[in-house]
Amino acid sequence: MPAAPVVQMGCLSPACFVLSSSVIKPWWESFQHHLGEGQCQNVDDGWKLADSMPSSAPALSLFPLWGSLLFLSACSSLIPQDFYSDSPGGFEINLDHRKLKTPQAKLFTVPSEALAIAVATEWDSQKDTIKFYTMHLTTLCNTALDNPTQRNKVQLIRAAVKFLETDTLCYRVEEPAALAELQKKEWDPIVAWAEKRYNVAIGSSTSIMGPNISASTRDTFISHLASYNMWALQGIEYVITQLKSLILSMGLIDRHITVEKAVLLSRLEEEYQIQRWGNVEWAHDYDLCELRARAAAGTLFVHLCSESSTVKHKLLQD
Length: 318
Fold this sequence. Notes:
Layout: E1 3-8, H1 21-35, E2 40-43, E3 46-49, E4 62-63, H2 68-74, E5 84-87, E6 90-95, E7 98-99, E8 109-110, H3 113-124, H4 136-146, H5 153-162, H6 177-198, H7 215-225, H8 230-243, H9 246-253, H10 259-266, H11 268-277, H12 281-306, E9 310-315
Antiparallel strand pairs: 1-9, 2-3, 3-4, 5-6, 6-7, 6-8
C-alpha cells in the first residue's frame, strides 16, 4: 500500500494562522508546478487536489490558499530534494548544484528543514530575472547569518523593546475628532490585549513625548523576548520595523491578529486620509501589498525558526 506524508507542525496549522496572499502566491504557483498541470482545482473555500491524482500523492483534500506555504514548508515531497540538503551545521540551499552563500560569502545554512524548503521555494519561484527585493525570507536568513550590525542577543532584545517608547499605538491625536475616535476604537482593544497577555501597563498619550513606559513593563518584554533564539529575534525586529509597533508585532506573532489586520492598524491614519481624500492606486496599493508581504514573511520566519516540524508516514486506506 503506498504511503503518503502526514504533516504535523505543532500549533502552526493553517486553521490558526493566516498569512497574506501576496506572500503566498509565489509559493503556491511553485506548489502547483511541482504537482503538475491540472492537478489543482479552485473551490469556494480554497483549493483541492484533482480526483486524478495518483494514490502516492501527498494526502491532501481541502487546502486553503493561505495555508499552502505552511504545508509546503513542512512537506519535502513538494520540492526537488536537490534544492536543499542536510549538513552538520543545518540545512544548505543548492542552486544548480552549487551551495548558496551569503553576501559575506558565508555558507548559507538554516536551522530547520521547514525554513530550508521555504527558502528553496522562494528561489524556485524566480523566473527569468532574480528579484531579490521579493525574497524576504532569503534576506532575513542572510541577516541572521552575517549579522551585519554585529549585535548579540541582549542588544537585539533591547533594540526591539526600545520601539515600545515610540509605538504607533501609543501615540494618539486630539483632532480631527473622527480620527481620534477611530484610533480609540481600533487601537484600544489590541493595547488592552497586550496589557492582559503580558501583565503590563502600557497606556497611550496625546503628548509628543508619548506615554510613560515603566521599567517593569520593559523588563517583562525583555524577559519574554529572551525566550526566542537569535534567528527568531532577527525576524521579530524585522516585523517591528515594518509595523512601527512592538504591540502589533507581538499580537501578530502570537496569532492574536492576522497580517491584514496588523497592517491595517499600523496604517490607520493613512487609511483615514485615503478614505477622506482618495486612493492613489499606483502608490498606496503598492505600499499596502509590500507591507503585507514583509510583515507576513517576517512572522513566518519567526515561527519557522522557533517551531519544530516532523513528517510522519501513514498508510492510505482504500
